[in-house]
Amino acid sequence: MYTLGSSYLAPPIHAGGLRYASGLFKARALRQADALKAGALFAETEGIIPAPESAYAIAAGLQLAAESKAKSAPCILMNISGHGLFDLSAYEQAQRGELPDDTPDERMIEASLAGTIERNAELAEAHPSNVSA
Amino acid sequence: MNRGNGASAEQAGVSTWCNFLFDFPDHYARSTASTNRFAYTQGVNVLPQQPLSLMKQSNDTTHPDIAIPGPVLKLYASYRPTLLRRAKTLEERLGTSARLYFKFEGANVSGSHKLNTALAQAYYYQKAGVKHLITGTGAGQWGTALAYACQRFGLACTVFMVGISYRQKPQRRTIVELFGGEIHESPSKLTRAGREALNRDPNRIGSLAVATGEAIELAREKKDTARFAVGSGETCVLLHQTVIGNEAVKQCKRSETSQIMSSLAWAPAAILPASACPSCVRGASLGGTSSSWRQSRWRARR
């Protein structure tokens, strides 16, 4: 797992649990608005309002389905990790087109990473015997 | 009679977790190679927070499957197996030739898959003699799941919830309190980490890093009874969540989907759990049945 540093504040998206990823699987980046649109479609067609986190997975599932249209029909299993009944404000904002921008702040990332590197250097200096090559 | 395309409890009952570290020992070796770069413990009094049982689960590359403890299985049975169904209406709406299936982890009291690991963690902490768990939560699914799990195992529970989510989802706070937990908006004034964060975050948006920092600080203060529960991003969590994948494999075998071509790997919160079972992902991508792939892997490792 990697870090952007403890002073980095992620954009305040509704999928609060979706803020880390590890390297074993291929990740896709999606916009919050597209995710919630897919979530709303899923709710309308399947009768389950998915959590915003799950809506990202659904949006990716729909992308995969669309991408593979020309090839043999794939079978896709989506994990709906939770319901979105406590996240209705997300769907409300999405319906009204009032979702805030979810673009990460590059300058904040840089500043936060710089702070982390600086802190690591301080620690390495203070505890040299614990620094491996 | 099946419920939807799913299977009945006996048919889909899963009694083990699938240890993906066994299947990816090389990845494990790579990801742990540099972890001690700044792990300076000399001169610093480090208090172990996790029970050894969970630490072992996060670092075990030798056992392909881990038995789910009886008390955890019993609690799983109150909401598992979860629904696995084909999304026919969605397929029709999209006009896709793809077959879309979904597994739904939201129909338990916490509303999300987080309960799968919260129950396991609370069980192991309680077994290790811990009386009180303290944790950080983002959107609140983890906090609500842990509060419920703690109540089931007779533990006290304190949750620090990322400020923006705390205000967006006040019902989550109510659920934590309903299950006897204590919940604080993070950054809070209760801890030094929180107070420092408040200075640079006047809008109180908060972050999981700060919420976690607050939880660790409080756990250290209350070290005689309390421990920090790391949440849903630890390696052992992936192990616990394979109950979803294991169950899905069983359910798929029973339905027309004998092969899953594509499982979505997303961040752990949403999708990783379903694909966390290597037998599900790798078995399918290699074109064989999941179990035969795993069996050959197992034989190769012996």
Total strand segments of chain A: 1
Q: Provide the residue-averaged pLDDT of chain B.
A: 80
Which segments of chain A are poorly predicted (pLDDT under 50) over 5 or more consecutive residues? none
- Output the structural class of chain B: alpha/beta
Helicity of chain B, in percent?
40-55%
User: In which order are the strands of the major sheet of chain B placed?
Assistant: 7-6-5-8
What is the percentage of strand-forming residues of chain B? 5-15%
The fraction of residues assigned to DSSP E strands of chain A is under 5%
Give helix and strand order of chain A, one letter per element, not per position.
HHEHH
Query: Number of DSSP strands of chain B?
Result: 9
Q: What distance separates the N and C termini of chain B? A: 41 Å
End-to-end Cα distance of chain A: 19 Å
Largest sheet of chain A: none
* Count of helical regions of chain B: 16
What does this molecule look like?
The complex is a heterodimer of chains A (133) and B (302). Chain A has 133 residues and is mainly alpha-helical. Chain A has four helices and one strand; from the N terminus they run ααβαα. Helix content of chain A is 45%, strand content 5%. In chain A, α1 packs across α2 and α1 (32-46) crosses α3 (88-95). Helices cover 48% and strands 13% of the residues of chain B. Chain B has a four-stranded parallel beta sheet with strand order 7-6-5-8, with helices on both faces. Chain B has a two-stranded antiparallel sheet with strand order 1-2. In chain B, α8 (141-152) links the parallel β5 (132-137) and β6 (156-162). The N and C termini of chain B lie far apart (41 Å). The relative contact order of chain B is 0.14. At the A-B interface, α1, α2, β1 and α4 of A face α6, β4, α9, α12 and α13 of B. β1 (75-80) of chain A pairs parallel with β9 (262-263) of chain B, so a sheet runs across the interface.
